[in-house]
Every structure is written in C-alpha cells, then in structure tokens.
Amino acid sequence: MKNALLALPILILVLSCTSGSPPPAADTSAVATPSIPDSEVGLAPGSAFDQPPQAPITFNSVDPGESELRPRPNDEFPPVIPHSIVDLETITLSENSCLECHDAAVAMDMGAVAVPASHRVDLRRSADVTGDEVVGSRWVCTSCHVAQTESTELVANRTP
Ligand code: HEC
Ligand code: HEC
Predict the structure, then answer these.
(1) Which of 99, 100, 107, 150 could be disulfide-bonded to 114 (CB atoms 3.0-4.6 Å)?
(2) Ligand nearest the Cα atom of residue 118
(3) Of the residues 68, 144, 146, which should be mutated to test ligand 2's pocket, given the most ligand atoms within 8 Å of the CB?
(4) Looking at the CA of 106, which ligand is closest?
(5) What is the pTM of this model?
(6) Distance from Cα 83 to the centre of ligand 1, integer Å
(7) Is 96 in the pocket of ligand 2 (CB under 6 A)?
(8) CATH class of 80-150
(9) Residue pLDDT, tens place only, 5-29
(10) In angstroms, rounded to a whole number, what is the distance separating the alpha carbons of residues 61 and 75?
C-alpha cells in the first residue's frame, strides 16, 4: 500500500511532463532588436551586400633576366619579385622552380640573385647553424616575396 501511494504522485508527474502541448515560446517582444543599416556593418563604403566590380589584374609578364630589381624599403624587407612568375610558380614538397635559378650553386650562371645565407638557418631549432639547404620555413618563396601586378588600388593608398 505504501508503495502504491508513492507511485501515484510519480505517475502524475511523468504524465504531466510527457503529454500535452509543447511549452509556449518565450516572449521576445520585450527584447529590443538593434537595427543597424547595411551601410554601417563594415568599414567599406556602401552596403555590406554590394559586390563592387573587380578591376582586371594584369600580371607582370617580363621574363626573368629582362626585369630590373626593385628598390627595397630596408635590408630586412623581402625584395619583391621583379619578373613574371606565371609559368614558374611550381613549389611542391620536392620541387621548387625558383631554386632552379636562385639556388646559390647556379644563381651566378643564371644571372639571378642567390638565395641569401639567412634562408639556410633554421631559426627555431638551431639558430646558430647555417646549413646547406634552404630550410622549410623559407621553402614557399612566394609567402614572403611578392609578384607584381598592374591593378588599381581597391582602397586608396595614402602613404606618401
Ligand atoms: C629562369 C630563372 C629564374 C627563375 C625560375 C626565378 N627567378 Fe627570380 N630572378 C631571376 C633573375 C635573373 C633576377 C634578377 C632580375 C632580372 O634580371 O630579371 C631575379 C630576381 C628575383 C628577385 C629580386 C631579388 C632582389 O634582390 O631584389 C626575387 C625576390 C626573385 N627573383 C624571386 C623569385 C621567386 C620567388 C621565384 C619562383 C616563383 C623566382 N624568382 C624564379 C631569375 C629567375
Ligand atoms: C619567411 C619569409 C621568406 C621566405 C619564405 C623566403 N624569403 Fe627570401 N628573403 C626574405 C627576406 C626578409 C629577405 C631580406 C633579408 C635577407 O636577405 O635575409 C630575403 C631576401 C632574398 C633575396 C635577396 C638576397 C640578396 O642578396 O639581396 C633573394 C634572391 C631571395 N630572398 C630569394 C628567396 C627564394 C628563392 C625563396 C624560396 C626558396 C625565398 N627567398 C623564401 C624572406 C623570405
């Protein structure tokens, strides 16, 4: 009898949880929804949904050996690539077309600037050792050395 008395309130509780309609949705009308105009979402002028036309980009087509070195802001700056790399940019784990001309062993014959000694130093593991090979962190040349294009500025450059 004692068990039966205990079971009744539990049964009522279970039934009230599992039957009937879902609980009413929370009333959100009291929460103020901020209204930000499309034109003020980002820094770009105009609506965030505008898709400005992309001006065509012309890649530098001057062959290696025919271009002229570009000035550098300082010695620590990776020089930009003065020549075309359209057909040269094969850089895989085992192949690096840039080194076919820039490797120190061949650079002089190719009339190219040799990869400097700094590129053979593994700064993270052995900063005092200058090895024989270009280290992994310098392998993907184009992550630092930038090819040149003729293109209009997306945003005006105010640097004097
Ligand atoms: C066919 C040979 C050749 C290949 C391949 C080549 N280069 Fe060059 N590179 C040159 C020559 C030669 C120069 C010197 C400028 C000239 O005579 O055009 C030069 C100049 C440069 C310079 C300027 C160096 C400075 O001191 O200002 C950079 C940077 C450079 N190349 C990077 C690259 C990268 C990155 C690649 C691969 C995507 C590459 N080059 C592939 C021949 C080559
Ligand atoms: C992590 C960035 C980085 C990567 C990757 C890198 N370089 Fe450089 N490179 C530099 C910087 C910075 C300089 C200028 C300072 C110096 O000489 O160490 C430079 C200088 C050079 C120079 C000019 C040397 C001179 O004597 O004036 C050449 C040529 C060059 N790099 C070629 C390459 C080639 C080819 C690769 C790919 C195998 C490569 N770099 C990868 C950052 C990089």
Answers:
(1) 107
(2) 2
(3) 144
(4) 1
(5) 0.78
(6) 6
(7) yes
(8) mainly alpha
(9) 555 455 444 444 444 566 666 666 6
(10) 26
